[in-house]
Amino acid sequence: MSEDEIEDHSAPLIEHLAELRTRLIRSVLAFVAGMVIMFTVAEPLLEFISQPLADVLRARGEDARLIFTAPQEKFFVLIRISVIAGFAISFPVIAHQLWRFVAPGLYKTEKNAFLPFLIASPLLFLLGAAFAHFIVTPLAMNFFIGFSDAIPALANLIAGEGEFQPSAPSQELQTVFLGSVRESLDLALKFIFAFGLCFQLPVLLTLMGKAGLVSAAGLRDVRKYAIVGILVVAALVTPPDVVTQLILFSAVYGLYEISIFLVAMVEKKRKERLKAEGLWDEDEADEAPAEDGAKKE
To answer: CA 187, 193, 199 angle in degrees (round to 5)?
Structure first.
């Protein structure tokens, strides 16, 4: 290869690297600006995230307060909230920079296929986060805090007092809930991220359907295994509370059925496109289900 050919090949690479640097710098600046802006409202955001716990404590007749055990604990909690919230509000800019970098290398059909998922993914994450904050987190907080009353109440019942209620104050060692700002925030964020990721199921399966990795028929065939898997996930990411686990199972399984419908739509559009291009072979399409049935037998 001559020197001129080497320079012709290296020039586009240098241009791509320069553009990538520009996109990364803009994304980082957007993230830093978002983090600084959200730090000014980090305190109200902390109150909003802690609201389910505060409601549970008020319902129990206790003071709705959180403690911090180190001088710097609350400051770093606010920093953490500003980082997460800053990334959230700067995500449209970051996604736009990513799209501007990737889009020139995509065909028009690939752009039309990729763009809806880029929009749907954050929306579904927000839906999952809202589901976790308004429904799952209050149930979980109520279960975890109320569990401290279950043991003494059960002891009263076994002792024959006849009432399932916490024991009266005594000289014995007792446990009292003093909520830590950091620990309470960690638990609430775990629920938010867990449910936000679970709500990405339709996007993931639809993308796999577009790539030909899964089919609607295949998803229907493994439905019973999917039910077992969703039940296991519900048991792992939620407290040992049947109501919370059933809520998560119902939500994720509903998303699984929606995913089957979306994959079927993708397959239908792909079939129509191949027929229009004259690339669809009816014989091969008919043989594939027959071979699948023979394998099942």
So the answer is: 135
